[in-house]
Write a structure and sequence with these properties.
Elements: H1 5-22, E1 26-30, E2 36-41, H2 48-68, E3 76-80, E4 85-91, E5 95-101, H3 107-133, H4 146-153, H5 156-163
Antiparallel strand pairs: 1-2, 1-5, 3-4, 4-5
Length: about 160
Amino acid sequence: MIMYEEEHRQISFLLNKLYRETNTRACYIVDKNGQLVAEAGEVENIDSTSLSSLVAGSIAATGSLAKLIGEKEFSIMLHEGKDQHIHVSLVAGGVILVVIFDGRTSLGLVRLRVKKASEEFNKVFINLSKKVQSPKAKSPFSEITDDDIDSLFRDDDIDKLFRE
């Protein structure tokens, strides 16, 4: 996924807004490949890399289950624990919104706010998709030349040793 700074700021703003409005522990946006896009809340004690990978894998497995019974996908998953819960939803055709919550809030409030936030995230990701597909959009690597790559990986001290 190509992400521009403007859209990343919008996504982070919306994620922080969702975190505040739901009084949850943490919120994440993860792409379908398991890469963390943004996070908000009490994220210090959560391994976001593992969480992102596992959530993406869970979405993939659940998608296969949905197809087995004739559904396109299951857009929402809920994992209820004794004290901690995870609400996972698909937004913008494959981006994953993860909300971790506990007794400080209710499932009803999380579902209500996630539904509203999903609409806002959809707008951002639709605009991002249009921007990326635009003929004016250029790759972040388009200005890098072969000489730039050579100079980046060249170690002048090692070159001197081989010449001596």
